[in-house]
Amino acid sequence: MNKQLPLPTDIQYDNFAEYICEAHSWYKHIPLFGGAEFIFFLSENAGGNYSEDSPRLHYAWKTTKEYRQRFGYLDYVYRMCDEEYFNRDSIHMFTDPLTIQPGTLGSSFTIRPKNLDSCSVVLYPFVSYDSDTLRCVILNNDYGENLSADDSHPNRNQLITWLDECQKSVDIWNAMSSDEIEIAIQMNDINLLEIDKYNLPANVIEYFKQEELAYEPYLHLQAGELSKIHKGLMNLQKLVLQGSPIWY
Question: Does pTM surpass 0.90?
Fold first, then answer.
């Protein structure tokens, strides 16, 4: 254990959990079937080697200073269900900055260290906050049919409920006239509690109400993924307090 570096605060653990949800466009990277494995740990190199003069080119965080302020020395690796190596994106000192290769700092993560078993979670693309894009990906690839035919997915029933509600929204949208669609686009940020203030066509009102119904199941799906992240980080915190070797 690196005793010279400060341990994460409770706020930094919470910040990190939220960050994982938006660290990448998971809705297009994580497979719906199989998901991706994530491992949480501490690293003295977490967020390293990014300065104001040489920032990271990603919206989630730009510099090492920003990273350490928000997350301390928390770090993670991940790999899709069909990948051998774990990926790590917080430092760029490797020959390949995205992939942990044998012989580098992260070579121990070609196989998950046993002491980090409890800090490992499997996440699915609905960990993302972007439900609109994910539903387009799923519906356009007819994944709903696969879910109906295969009961092995741990969130199968919730996903089918969500996709059914999404399809209802699509059907209403497709039935609207071009003028109604234009109105719906212009009123996209409408507050449903104030919808009666506007003289909107019945189809547009029905669409917005159905969108609200479609979003509710997704909130439960996303909350479940965030809960798994929190559980993995809580287990990491326990190991930290026990003095276990969880610095990598």
Answer: no
